[in-house]
Amino acid sequence: MSAFVWILVGLATTSAQDQIARMTHAETRARGPTFYVPGISGRTAGEVLALGDDESRHVRALRLEQGARIKLTDGAGSLWEGRLAEGGRSATCVLESVLSPAAALPVELAFGVGNKAHVMWLVEKATEMGVGRLVPLESERTRSVSDAGRSPAFWNKAERRAISALKQSGGAWLPEMEPPRSLVDYAEPAAGSAGSGASGTTLRVRLDGAGDRLRKVIDPWGGTDRLGLLVGPEGGWSEGEISLLDDAGFRPASLGPLVLRFETAAVAGLAVVAQQVLDRAGTGDRPSSRDTGG
What we know:
The protein is of the alpha/beta class.
């Protein structure tokens, strides 16, 4: 029997959960898992830290042994390498050396609120890509979405999902997450009125199939100042909202001829922007500062 057939037999007789567990543990052994530990900024090598309940459960789930190599981040740019001192219900670790994390992607991603599951997926993937800020928006065509992610309870859950995604990616930056706000309120600062919103961005782009290619639109952007990337809701923006965005300086940019779900379009757009950042830096790594990332 050929080696390929033996592989197929093995897959057929192994449950999906076992396969996933083996893959996860193999990845963990290869690079060391990352744990979320707020307040590690300013610590010194040799300090012993207690992990929280959630992280202690993570230690037990991974079946880590004493002395296992781990990474720790506070989600605000601090990244340490350490080792597990004690497992069990109240795990502890020893800090060993400071690591230089990749910078947050200097993007403010704004999007029309939608189905909870789709928004949650978007939060997860955007966090994995290191996005600097997430801004959910209410518009004319989002008001009728009854199962949209709007409530504070939903966004608390989204923050927990973001922490999980941060750990999975090995990054060091949690995105800033704003509560849902109106498109009008968000666009006004970009047009020059007082307030927050998109006023801190140097280039404002809205994904629209009628625009030029996204890569062409962002080509003049240096890749360091914050870029505003706006993704419309299911059904798109109304004519009045498009006029509002045009007046506020949002440039239309296309990802191609196909119609994408808002969460797919957002992640595809982030991938294009991330490649631009890497090309501008001339390296496979982004700078290790978030000063321009939001």
